[in-house]
Amino acid sequence: MAPLKWSPEVLPSLSGRTYLVTGGNTGIGYWTVYHLALRGASVYLTSRSEEKGIDAIAKIKAAISGLDPSNQPQLYLLVMDLMSLTSVVAAAKNVRSECSQLHGLVNSAGIMATPYLVSEDGYESQFQTNYLSHWLLTYHLLPLLESTAQSTPEGTVRIVNVSSMGHAATLKEGITFEDTGLKDKFTFRRYAQSKLGNVLHAGSLHQRHRSSSTNIWCIALHPGNVDTQLNVKTLGGSTLTPILRCLGTYITPEEGSYNSLWALVGDDVRQEHSGKYFIPVGVEKKPSKQASNEKLAKRLWEWTERELGEKGMLEMA
Questions:
Q1: Which helix (H) or strand (E) holds 278?
Q2: From CA 88, how far away is CA 133, in angstroms rounded?
Q3: What average pLDDT does this structure show over 160-169?
Q4: Would the N or C end of the chain have less CB density within 10 A of its end CB?
């Protein structure tokens, strides 16, 4: 793969801003947190494991302080399990109670092509982890994001959904509403469906905010073919990963964070980029036919709202 033509070195100071990154204890989430904190932002990072979250924060602080002892990163651990909707709601409530402003959200955590598993809430693991829980987290943080957008210049507040080029590998209908678990289908079909959900979600958020007084910019993206622990957990990954690595297909986890960083805080991002889909770094690309289907996006939003509403997950405490 050709070297990336963009670097976070060009990012402005982020002092006084606050962001939340899911999956911030590892992979591209970790490096997204690192570069935000390096530029002075306060960052909430989510981790399913408290121990791993604490360890990640310690490593990031040590690395940044090693570069500049005067830079003492403001990092906060948010223990959250995306396989538990209750955990997601509780995490969002904690942030709303602690923060007066939230300038951006990166829905970065995810799992890829894992064996079939059902969550405690009754949903297939990839669909819940990658899509449903991030939709729910965003829903509960929107009041805070919207109030921040009202008091900051347009384009300051952004939501970034980390999807994948794999979103195009869905079944023909895109989202199988009558059976979102897809138990009898190949695991990559389930992964693709969840990642299509991320793109459709970003598009729906854009539609809902583009003409409002709280103009939040919403971008979906592919981070690149990143060499992370996701590949180890993927069915067949133990065979494919070494081959792809030798062919130079992979980029590093740090490079994998660049597209998210560009979308979240890049100075050259414009209002017309909101609602679009990008590949590394900052290159607009037309997503799949299903991902461009506004009727499907509307149906998915309504289905999700109904599903989570019936479980009592949309109530703001």
A1: strand 277-279
A2: 7
A3: 97
A4: C
Domain around 45: 15-224+254-309
DSSP secondary structure letter of residue 131? I
The pair of three-digit structure tokens given for residue 73, joined into one six-digit string: 């990163």
Q: Cβ neighbours of residue 20 under 8 Å, at least 6 residues apart?
A: 43, 44, 45, 46, 78, 95, 102, 104, 105, 106, 141
Nearest to 45 by CA among 7, 16, 6, 73: 73
Q: What is the pTM of this model?
A: 0.94
d(CA 127, CA 307): 13
Separation CA 216–CA 174 (nearest Å): 26
Which residues pair with residue 106 across a beta bridge? Answer: 21, 160
**Residues 256, 27 contacting (CB under 8 angstroms):** yes
Examine residue 242 and state whether it is found in any structural domain, yes or no.
no
Q: How many domains would you assign to the chain?
A: 1
pLDDT confidence of residue 253: 95
Q: Tell me whether strands 42-47 and 74-79 are parallel, antiparallel or unpaired.
A: parallel
Verify whether residue 191 is a known catalytic residue: yes
Which one of 30, 191, 250, 277 is the catalytic residue?
191
pLDDT tens by residue, 63-115: 999 999 999 999 999 999 999 999 999 999 999 999 999 999 999 999 999 99
pLDDT at 244: 42
Beta strands in 4-41 (DSSP E): 18-21
Does some domain include residue 234? Answer: no
Q: Any residues with CB less than 8 A from the CB of 228 and at least 6 apart, and which?
A: 26, 27, 28, 253, 256
| C-beta separation of 194 from 216 below 8 A | no
